[in-house]
Design goal:
103 residues, mainly alpha
Length: 103
């Protein structure tokens, strides 16, 4: 074969493969770059977001703990009032003397 025919054929083949590679691989490279950028942004920005969420959860738990303590205190107060009250004054409740006399 003549080198003057082979050289342009090889050059044309290389040019076609280069254009085809760019056309096919450019969208893939672009999407891969966007994915890597999003992952880097998430990694860099993920820590403060996680800290914020943990802080909110701690605040909610603290609030729930405070509410539970308040409810326990109210229950204890109510139970103390009921214990101090005269059982005979409550409707439908028999005192210890009455219930012992019936038995």
């Amino acid at each position: 074969m003549d080198p003057e025919v082979i050289a342009p054929a090889i050059l044309t083949l290389v040019l076609i493969l280069t254009v085809a590679g760019v056309v096919l691989l450019r969208p893939l490279a672009k999407h891969l770059g966007l994915l890597l950028e999003a992952m880097a942004r998430e990694k860099a920005g993920g820590a403060p977001k996680l800290d914020t969420q943990l802080s909110q959860i701690r605040d909610m738990l603290q609030t729930q703990g405070d509410r539970l303590a308040l409810m326990e205190e109210r229950i204890e107060f109510t139970e103390a009032l009921v214990r101090r009250r005269d059982p005979a004054a409550l409707p439908g409740v028999q005192g210890p003397e009455e219930s012992a006399g019936e038995a």
